[in-house]
Design goal:
Length: 153
């Protein structure tokens, strides 16, 4: 009796067939897959943005390595505003280590840290891309099953 209640469709007034129950289950699963696809895409976008920041930092530090003892630089101070500043000691770099805590290091060490972070992001990106492809394939498979079940009715 309990199972019959689960598969009872009041608008028709009959018990659902197995294919109707499967169709309903599959249709209800689609939004979850769509949400998961959007999640993986947003994670990949976030990684792409962080990687762009890392590339910019690497370019800046590489430019510092090639420069002389002091150099005039454009320093961002917030809200799309920058100031010109003269950097006298080109070998002192502050690197964020988390929770708004910074550590003084050398240019070479900061480049090594950026390269390590880039490697970690590339690994995460590969994992996320794999998960995205897998979720998209499952989504397509479910849509195909839905279409075949709708063709049966």
């Amino acid at each position: 009796m309990f199972l019959a209640w689960l598969f009872y469709t009041p608008r028709i007034g009959t018990l659902m067939s197995d294919s109707d129950a499967e169709l309903r289950r599959l249709v209800n699963a689609l939004p979850q897959y769509e949400d998961q696809i959007r999640y993986w895409e947003s994670q990949l976008d976030a990684i792409s943005n962080v990687k762009a920041d890392i590339f910019q930092a690497q370019d800046t530090i590489n430019g510092m390595i090639k420069s002389e003892k002091s150099n005039e630089m454009l320093v961002p101070v917030g809200h799309n505003t920058s100031i010109f500043a003269t950097v006298n000691d080109m070998d002192r770099v502050l690197v964020g280590i988390g929770s708004r805590v910074y550590m003084e290091t050398t240019r070479e060490d900061s480049l090594n840290r950026l390269n390590k972070r880039l490697d970690d992001l590339n690994t995460a990106s590969q994992t996320y891309q794999s998960n995205l492809v897998k979720t998209q394939q499952e989504y397509s498979s479910i849509r195909g099953k839905i279409e075949s079940l709708q063709g049966v009715q």
